[in-house]
Specification:
The strands form 2 sheets. A 5-stranded parallel sheet has the order 2-1-3-6-7, sandwiched between helices. A two-stranded antiparallel ribbon has the order 4-5. It is an alpha/beta fold. Strand 1, helix 1 and strand 2 form a beta-alpha-beta unit. It contains 4 helices and 7 strands. Helix content is about 35%, strand content about 25%. The longest helix has 13 residues.
């Protein structure tokens, strides 16, 4: 993706599948984002966001090694961080509190995911 849609934005990536995480981070960086992560464990992600004061958006896999990511998502929502769920689960798997968040179902084009992150930071 040649456009720098995410120039100047810091994007947290929480994804436990290494190859997916690596490719996603690379595409976010090509779009101009400063990537925080990737982080593949819930406890590590919770610790990381306690140290980060400037997160503009987060891309979250719903299931991290058998643990759902909703406790992390709740903390990010409290901080006003827009979320993009990147998951194999459908919308029904998401809690009602995330109705305003984007959901990209795997597999999805990373161009589409980048555009969803861009929409989220611009909203």
């Amino acid at each position: 993706m040649g456009d720098l849609l995410l120039q100047g934005y810091r994007v947290l990536v929480v994804e436990d599948e290494y190859l997916i995480a690596k490719e996603l981070c690379g595409e976010l960086e090509l779009a101009g984002a400063e990537v925080i992560g990737p982080i593949g464990h819930l406890a590590t992600a919770l610790a990381q966001i306690s140290e980060e004061s400037d997160i503009h958006a987060a891309v979250l896999d719903v299931n991290l090694r058998g643990n759902d990511v909703f406790s992390l998502a709740d903390l990010l929502v409290e901080r006003g961080v827009p979320l993009v769920f990147y998951t194999g689960y459908d919308n029904a798997a998401l809690r009602a509190g995330y109705a305003g968040s984007s959901v990209c179902l795997k597999p999805v084009s990373l161009d589409v995911l980048i555009r969803e992150v861009h929409k989220a930071v611009k909203a």
